[in-house]
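As the next step, I selected for study one protein, both as residues and as discrete backbone shape codes, as given directly below:
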Amino acid sequence: MPYLSSNQLKQYKDEGFVSPISIFSKGKAKKIRNEIELIEKKMPKELEKSGRYNAHLISPLLDEVSHNPKILDAVESIIGKNILVCGTTLFIKNPNERGFVSYHQDAKYIGLEPYNWVTAWVAITDSNENNGCMRMWPGSHKDNLKQHDQKFNEGNLLTRGQTIKNVPRNETIPLLLEAGQMSLHHPTVVHGSELNRSNDRRIGFVIQSYIGTNVKQILGKNSVQIARGVDNFNFHKKIRRTNSLMDKDDLKIKKKRMIIFRKYSIKDLIKKVVINEKKQIKKKLNFVSLC
């Protein structure tokens, strides 16, 4: 069933995620893995660190996944028929490396409002407890955004090591996916993943995120692709889909997009820090005046 069933929609509403959803075959997943690894071979370091963002702009198969009708049908069930691809991320955990993702909420740092958006986590390889699958804290999306510490810790696949303290692991559940399946999760659900203890890579391709056309970027500056429907709001700059594998012009677009996003993200982060500091000073002054 391409669109989400009533039971799946209930799971998403109650728990903040729905999983698993079958999208394509394991054979197709293997072809996608081969294309990713070809890029790594031909262009070493292109998909490392910040390069893992928006690989769909230089990979026809990842672009195809981002615009996959089955995925878009499921997404439409949650955010409506007008859908934009705001960005993608490759989460690759190699064996014998200390790669993990600390528990966090996407909405805390992605900067998209309102929360009419959803993240799709697509398994390019099998994803299980042994190789560090995603773990979800069911129902945590119903709470407010939680305090995140920025740890910048080694091995953390999140850029700033955004971490929520004291997440009860015994209340989290693993999302077991076979290659070609996906999960969808809410902007505010708490989630993370642990080490890859297997002898093979764990590869996840994450569309982060599919957004409704009414959603604005309030932190950073981004560009989007129209995946389905029409955009009558025009809050975002549009970019075209990839021409071919590792196309030179597409590589320039990918690099330029990252530079612009980082530039505006840093400016907005500094602005946010200054505003918070002013609020703290005002609180202290108010406290003194009360004394």
Summary: The helical segments are 6-15, 26-42, 60-66, 69-79, 107-110, 248-290. The radius of gyration is 19 Å. The longest helix spans residues 248-290.
